[in-house]
Design a protein that fits this description.
Layout (H helix, E strand, L loop, with lengths): L1 H13 L4 H11 L2 H15 L13 H4 L9 H14 L5 H15 L6 H8 L4 H21 L1 H33 L1
Length: about 180
């Protein structure tokens, strides 16, 4: 959370914000994110896919391979890692190899390559493909227009697109769940 707040303060500084005002605003609205997250989770749990309760790989919709399955890929990966450690059969050699590959990819001049490869290992193709295209577009724009253009135009536009997509998907999900 500290890194997130520091990033917010840095972003605020870049656009001319006052740190004291930013911190007061963060303190005043800090409850909204957890309230929405808990509310959304409870709503998805109570009105899960196909009329069944729950989500994740063990939910009835995922077991039946229904179209409304909400698999939670990151949670599944973390669950398997934790179970491996708890039961003493964690593939430590693979974790070390992954860390070494990630460290090596971080040395390449292509920004985000290590993250892209890591995400590609457990997220669906359509997500990592979009991320990869975004990395390539960012690199091309930076060469053509410079870093300042990226910071002044592309980053705010990208943030708006991410927020817009999330709000649209949340609205569509709420409408679908409200219909029953």
């Amino acid at each position: 959370q500290c890194a997130d707040m520091m990033t917010d303060l840095k972003t605020g500084h870049l656009i001319g914000g006052v740190p004291r005002t930013q911190q007061l605003a963060q303190f005043g609205v800090a409850w909204i994110g957890p309230a929405i997250a808990v509310g959304t989770t409870m709503l998805l749990w109570s009105k899960g896919p196909g009329g069944t309760m729950g989500f994740g790989p063990e939910s009835q919709a995922c077991v039946d391979k229904a179209s409304g399955c909400l698999p939670a890929p990151q949670a599944s990966v973390l669950q398997s890692m934790i179970e491996g450690v708890l039961h003493g059969n964690a593939p430590i050699d693979k974790y070390v190899a992954g860390a070494a590959i990630g460290g090596g990819l971080a040395l390449f001049p292509i920004a985000g390559l290590g993250v892209l490869v890591g995400l590609a290992m457990y997220l669906p193709f359509e997500i990592t493909f979009g991320y990869g295209l975004g990395c390539l577009a960012n690199m091309a724009m930076e060469k053509m227009k410079g870093r300042r253009f990226i910071g002044d135009v592309v980053v705010p536009l990208g943030a708006g697109l991410i927020i817009g997509e999330a709000l649209t998907n949340l609205t569509l999900t709420m409408i679908t769940l409200a219909k029953g």
